[in-house]
Automatic annotation (TrEMBL):
<dbReference type="GO" id="GO:0008017">
    <property type="term" value="F:microtubule binding"/>
</dbReference>
<dbReference type="InterPro" id="IPR030381">
    <property type="entry name" value="G_DYNAMIN_dom"/>
</dbReference>
<dbReference type="InterPro" id="IPR027417">
    <property type="entry name" value="P-loop_NTPase"/>
</dbReference>
<dbReference type="GO" id="GO:0008053">
    <property type="term" value="P:mitochondrial fusion"/>
</dbReference>
<dbReference type="GO" id="GO:0000266">
    <property type="term" value="P:mitochondrial fission"/>
</dbReference>
<keyword id="KW-0999">Mitochondrion inner membrane</keyword>
<dbReference type="GO" id="GO:0048312">
    <property type="term" value="P:intracellular distribution of mitochondria"/>
</dbReference>
<dbReference type="GO" id="GO:0005758">
    <property type="term" value="C:mitochondrial intermembrane space"/>
</dbReference>
<dbReference type="GO" id="GO:0008289">
    <property type="term" value="F:lipid binding"/>
</dbReference>
<keyword id="KW-0175">Coiled coil</keyword>
<keyword id="KW-0342">GTP-binding</keyword>
<keyword id="KW-0053">Apoptosis</keyword>
<keyword id="KW-1133">Transmembrane helix</keyword>
<keyword id="KW-0378">Hydrolase</keyword>
<feature type="domain" description="Dynamin-type G">
    <location>
        <begin position="59"/>
        <end position="335"/>
    </location>
</feature>
<keyword id="KW-0809">Transit peptide</keyword>
<keyword id="KW-0496">Mitochondrion</keyword>
Length: 715
C-alpha cells in the first residue's frame, strides 16, 4: 500500500508536469509550427485508406481497437472512461450507436474533441459543449442511416485530445442484438453482424470484447462471434462490465472468476479485465465514476480473496493494456502494410513502363489540366487565321448557299423579259426583296457555320506524333457545349442588310479587269448549271448510242418515250430560236399528235416536264455564247450601250452579285475576328471551368486503361 500511494503521487505529479509542457507548446504554436503527433498522423492514414478502399477489403490491414459487445453491455461507457468524457448519446435500453464511430485518442494540454470534417472544437470540461457534442454525434448517426434502415456502415471520425489520455484509435460498433424489435428494419441483426465481422476480419484489429457482468453469461451473443473471428484469442481483450452489480446478484463469486480466467466461455483472449463504468446514473461525471470504481475494487471480495489480480481491474489499467497492445500491433503491421503497398505500386509502375514507356503518369485531374491548356491554345489559333482565308471561305460558302436562288429566282425570270429596261427593273425588285427578307440571315448562318467548322478543324485535326487521342472525347464535348452556348450578335443582321443593299444598288464597273472577272464568274456559274442540266436530261432519256455500244446497256421504255419527246421539242426550238420559256397548249397538242402518229402515247405533263429541261439547256448555252460576245462589251458599257446592238445587263447583274459577296465576306470576317472569336473563347473557358468542377463529367470523358492505371498509381 505504501508503494502504491507513492506511485499514485508520482503519476499525478508527472501528469501535471506533462500538462504544463503541453500548455507551453500550445502557447508557442504561432512562433513555431508544431509537428503532428504520431497518433494523429496514423489516424489520418486510416481515413485516407478508408476513402481509398471504401469496401474495407484486404488492402487495409492496419490496427484499430474494435469495440464490440451485446446491446447495452456498456461498450460506450467503457469507451467514455478511456476517453475521460461523456461524449456519446445515451438512452435506456434503446439502440444508440447506429453507425461505427472512430475515436482517435491523443495527449494534449486541453480536453477537447473535434470531427474530421469540421474545425469546431468542443471543450469537454464544459457541460454545454458536451451536450452539443452528443447532439452532433446523434444527428450525424441519424443522417447517415438510409431510409428503411436502422444502422449505417458510414464511419463517423472523431478526435479526442486531453492530458493523460492513452494514444490509440478505437472504433465503437453498434451493439449486437438477438432479436429485431418493432421499429427496426428486418435486416438490422444481419447488418450489425456484417459490420462487426468486416471490422474484426482485419487480422491486425484488436478486438475489445465487452460482456455485461450483471446478466447470465449464457445470454451473450458477442462471445461466439468473437471466437469465430479470433479462435486463438491472439488479438482479443475481454472486458467484464458492471462487476459491482454482478457481485451483488451472483450467488457464487467463483463464477465471475471463471469468466475472468476465460473458463466459462469457449473463447480465448490475450487478457481479461473487470471494470465498473457507473452506478446507472447517466448524469454522473467521469471523476465520480473513477472514484466509485477504485473504492469498489478496494473493498471488493474479488480482490481480497485473490479471485481477481490488481492489474486486471479498473478502466485505467484496461486503457494502459489496450494502448500497449495497440502500439505493439502498429509496430508489427505498419511496416508489413507499407511493404504491401510498395509491392502494389511497384507492380503498377512496371505495368506503366511496359505499356507507356514515353509518357508521364498523369491522373485524371492532371490530364484534364493538360487537355484544358491544349484546347485554349487551339481556340487562340482561331485568332491567327488570316483575313484572306476567312474571306475566301465565307465568299465561297455564301455563294454555294445563295447561287440557286440567284439563278432560279432572279436571273432566269429576268432574262425571259423582252428588253433591257424590263430586265433591270425585274432584277432590282427581286434583289431588294431578297436583301430585305433572306440574304442577311443566310449570310450570318454561313458565318456561324464557318466559325464552327474552323473551330472543329483546330480541335480535331491530328498533330502528327504529338496527337493524343485520349483527349478526343473531352475535346468533342467541350466543342459541342461551347457551340451550344454561343449566340451570334443579334444586331449583326441589321448592319449587314444596309451594307448589302448599298453593294447591290451600285452598277458602276470601274475597269476592264472587273468586267472580265464578272464574265468569268458568270461563265463558271452557267457552266456548272449547264452540266447539272445535261446530267438531268441524260437520266431522262437514257444513254446515247456510244454508251449503249460500249457498255452494252439499253434504254427503258419510259426513256425511249422521253427521247422521242426530246427530239420533237428540239425541232420546235430550231424552228423558232427566240421561243418563249413556256409551251403554248396548241404546241403541246402538236407534239403529242406527232408522237401518236409514230405510235407513241405521251402525257402532256411529261411533254412540259421534258420541255423545261430542253429549253433550260438551250437558254444556258445561248447565255454562255452571249458571255463570249460581251468580252468586248466594256467599251459599249461605258457608253451605256448607246448606238450598239450588244446589251450586257446580265454581266452587270453578276458583277453586282460578285461585289456583294466580297463586301459581305469582308464584313462577316470583321465581325468574326473582332467579336465572335473572342466570345467563343470566353464560352470555351466557362465550359472548361464547369467541367473542372464536375468529377462525373471528367470520369465519363477521360477514360481508358491508361487513365485508370494513372489513377491507381496516384492513389
Amino acid at each position: 500500500l505504501k508503494y502504491q500511494r507513492m506511485l499514485e503521487r508520482l503519476e499525478k505529479e508527472n501528469k501535471e508536469l506533462r500538462k504544463l509542457v503541453l500548455q507551453r507548446d500550445d502557447k508557442g504554436i504561432h512562433q513555431r509550427k508544431l509537428k503532428k503527433s504520431l497518433i494523429d498522423m496514423y489516424s489520418e492514414v486510416l481515413d485516407i485508406l478508408s476513402d481509398y478502399d471504401a469496401s474495407y477489403n484486404t488492402q487495409d490491414h492496419l490496427p484499430r481497437v474494435v469495440v464490440v459487445g451485446d446491446q447495452s453491455a456498456g461498450k460506450t461507457s467503457v469507451l467514455e472512461m478511456i476517453a475521460q468524457a461523456r461524449i456519446f448519446p445515451r438512452g435506456s435500453g434503446e439502440m444508440m450507436t447506429r453507425s461505427p464511430v472512430k475515436v482517435t485518442l491523443s495527449e494534449g494540454p486541453h480536453h477537447v474533441a473535434l470531427f474530421k470534417d469540421s474545425s469546431r472544437e468542443f471543450d469537454l470540461t464544459k457541460e454545454e459543449d458536451l451536450a452539443a457534442l452528443r447532439n452532433e454525434i446523434e444527428i450525424r448517426m441519424r443522417s447517415s442511416v438510409k431510409e428503411g434502415c436502422t444502422v449505417s456502415t458510414e464511419t463517423i471520425s472523431l478526435s479526442v485530445k486531453g492530458p493523460g489520455l492513452q494514444r490509440m484509435v478505437l472504433v465503437d460498433l453498434p451493439g449486437v442484438i438477438s432479436t429485431v424489435t418493432s421499429g427496426m428494419a428486418p435486416d438490422t441483426k444481419e447488418t450489425i453482424f456484417s459490420i462487426s465481422k468486416a471490422y474484426m476480419q482485419n487480422p491486425n484489429a484488436i478486438i475489445l470484447c465487452i460482456q455485461d457482468g450483471s446478466v447470465d453469461a449464457e445470454r451473450s451473443i458477442v462471445t461466439d462471434l468473437v471466437s469465430q473471428m479470433d479462435p486463438q484469442g491472439k488479438r482479443t481483450i475481454f472486458v467484464l462490465t458492471k462487476v459491482d452489480l454482478a457481485e451483488k446478484n451472483v450467488a457464487s463469486p467463483s463464477r465471475i472468476q471463471q469468466i475472468i480466467e476465460g473458463k466459462l466461455f469457449p473463447m480465448k483472449a490475450l487478457g481479461y479485465f473487470a471494470v465498473v463504468t457507473g452506478k446507472g446514473n447517466s448524469s454522473e461525471s467521469i471523476e465520480s465514476i473513477k472514484e466509485y470504481e477504485e473504492e469498489f475494487f478496494q473493498n471488493s471480495k474479488l480482490l481480497k480473496t485473490c479471485m481477481l489480480k490488481a492489474h486486471q481491474v479498473t478502466t485505467k489499467n484496461l486503457s494502459l493494456a489496450v494502448s500497449d497492445c495497440f502500439w505493439k500491433m502498429v509496430r508489427e503491421s505498419v511496416e508489413q502494410q507499407a511493404d504491401a503497398f510498395k509491392a502494389t505500386r511497384f507492380n503498377l509502375e512496371t505495368e506503366w513502363k511496359n505499356n507507356y514507356p514515353r509518357l508521364r503518369e498523369l491522373d485524371r485531374n492532371e490530364l484534364f489540366e493538360k487537355a484544358k491548356n491544349e484546347i485554349l491554345d487551339e481556340v487562340i489559333s482561331l485568332t491567327q487565321v488570316t483575313p484572306k482565308h476567312w474571306e475566301e471561305i465565307l465568299q465561297k460558302t455564301l455563294w454555294e448557299r445563295v447561287s440557286t436562288h440567284v439563278i432560279e429566282n432572279i436571273y432566269l425570270p429576268a432574262a425571259q423579259t423582252m428588253n433591257s429596261g424590263t430586265f433591270n427593273t425585274t432584277v432590282d425588285i427581286k434583289l431588294k426583296q431578297w436583301t430585305d427578307k433572306q440574304l442577311p440571315n443566310k449570310a450570318v448562318e454561313v458565318a456561324w457555320e464557318t466559325l464552327q467548322e474552323e473551330f472543329s478543324r483546330f480541335m480535331t485535326e491530328q498533330k502528327g506524333k504529338e496527337h493524343d487521342d485520349i483527349f478526343d472525347k473531352l475535346k468533342q464535348a467541350v466543342k459541342e457545349e461551347s457551340i451550344k452556348r454561343h449566340k451570334w450578335n443579334e444586331r449583326a443582321e441589321d448592319s449587314l442588310r444596309v451594307i448589302q443593299h448599298n453593294a447591290l444598288e451600285d452598277r458602276s464597273i470601274s475597269d476592264k479587269q472587273q468586267w472580265d472577272a464578272a464574265i468569268h464568274f458568270m461563265e463558271e456559274t452557267l457552266q456548272s448549271r449547264l452540266k447539272d442540266t445535261e446530267s438531268v436530261i441524260e437520266d431522262m432519256v437514257g444513254p446515247d448510242w456510244k454508251k449503249r455500244w460500249l457498255y452494252w446497256i439499253g434504254r427503258t421504255k419510259e426513256q425511249n418515250v422521253r427521247n422521242e419527246t426530246k427530239n420533237e421539242l428540239e425541232k420546235l426550238i430550231k424552228c423558232d430560236e427566240e421561243h418563249a420559256a413556256y409551251l403554248a397548249n396548241d404546241e403541246v397538242t402538236t407534239v403529242r399528235k406527232n408522237l401518236e402518229a409514230r405510235g407513241i402515247t405521251v402525257d402532256p405533263c411529261l411533254i412540259k416536264d421534258t420541255w423545261h429541261q430542253i429549253y433550260r439547256r438551250y437558254f444556258l448555252k445561248t447565255a454562255l455564247n452571249h458571255c463570249n460576245l460581251c468580252r468586248r462589251g466594256f467599251y459599249y458599257y461605258q457608253r451605256h450601250f448607246v448606238d450598239s446592238e450588244l446589251e450586257c445587263n446580265d454581266i452587270v447583274l453578276f458583277w453586282r452579285i460578285q461585289r456583294m459577296l466580297a463586301i459581305t465576306a469582308n464584313t462577316l470576317r470583321q465581325q468574326l475576328t473582332n467579336t465572335e472569336v473572342r466570345r467563343l473563347e470566353k464560352n470555351v473557358k466557362e465550359v472548361l471551368e464547369d467541367f473542372a468542377e464536375d468529377n462525373e463529367k471528367k470520369v465519363k470523358l477521360l477514360t481508358g486503361k491508361r487513365v485508370q492505371l494513372a489513377e491507381d498509381l496516384s492513389k
